[in-house]
Write a structure and sequence with these properties.
Layout: H1 4-17, E1 25-31, H2 35-47, E2 51-57, H3 59-68, H4 71-74, H5 79-87, E3 90-95, H6 108-117, H7 119-131, E4 135-140, H8 144-149, H9 154-164, H10 172-190, E5 195-200, E6 203-208, E7 215-217, E8 222-223, E9 227-230, E10 238-242, E11 247-249, E12 252-254, E13 258-262, E14 265-270, H11 275-282, E15 291-297, H12 309-312, E16 318-324, E17 339-345, E18 351-354, E19 357-361, E20 364-365
Parallel strand pairs: 1-2, 1-3, 3-4, 4-8
Antiparallel strand pairs: 5-6, 5-18, 6-10, 7-9, 9-15, 10-13, 11-12, 13-14, 15-16, 16-17, 18-19, 19-20
Helix pairs in contact: 1-2
Amino acid sequence: MSDLRTAKLADVLVNYSTKVQSGEWVGILGDIAALPLLREVYSAVVKAGGNPTLLLTDEVMRREFYRYASDEQMNWLDPAMSLYLDKADVYIRVNAPTNTRAMSNIDPKRVRQVASAQGGWLETRMRRASEGSFKWVGTLFPTEALAQDAGMSLEEYEDFVYSATYANLPDPVAEWQKMGAMQQQKIDWLKGKKHIKCIGPNIDLELSIDGRSFINACGERNMPDGEIFTGPVEDSVQGWVRFSYPSIKDGRAVEGIELKFVDGRVEEASSKTNQDLLFAQLDADSRSRYLGEFAIGTNFGINKFTGQILYDEKIGGTVHMAIGFGYPDTGSINKSSVHWDMICDMRTDSEIYVDGELFYKNGQFTV
């Protein structure tokens, strides 16, 4: 029996997030387990007049590739995907893992080798997005594996997902527009500001935003959404941060990450678990030790850590940072094959000052 909320979510992805127009080439990329949502997205694209290309992925085949591929195979770029990223108009991605630990025993250096080889794809996608020639959005379809990681039954997790995306409400678009208006007020206040300082039990960090722009993330690229983010001036980041939640990469959780920045670069790093994975990311290339993103999460409807960064980075009362690639539309010039988000809780005894003025205290905006 189909879930009406799935059709409503598909409508949001196609007609709000990416605003598919007649004649546009729309890539629908998704895991096999996401088929119910992919079907609804496909139908919505056709009804909007778009030209859909369906690209299915499977975690079992993906794992086999990482396990057995030669260096030549790992460095090969699928020409069909290269053409798509160069020429298509829309990218809709639906992840639906059935085993979130499927990559746990794969050598992280092999994963990084593939990511490095495909770094040009990421750069192309982000460059075209910043130019306005490539619309994209990513989301998750609820699976038993995701529900288990979140400590919920599948039915509870489905309710959580559809609530977080507003697909359980009569007019989801109106709710995303409301969030967008609130966030735009903060961004307007931040315009022209130069310096940010974060203080709290888990952080003592400062960075420059001089000449950089904050982006209003209100469901047009991530679903769900709820953040304002920018790209710090690359060599400006100074201080330290201890991340409150595990950062999960390819099915491996790296817990207790601490980073110390000097002149923008991570000079000291440690973690309580999987430190080899941490350093594989930090040492991936010459710019992976620099921050590409600084963001404030604003979605208080997401109040529980689930192990999925798409949701967790939006938790209201947190900030998150990403080492590596920075989004060009923020003004960032940091180019890397890495973009790895890490989350710091700011809800207790924590403050953010902007140009010396209190902007945020204990998880709430003060302006």
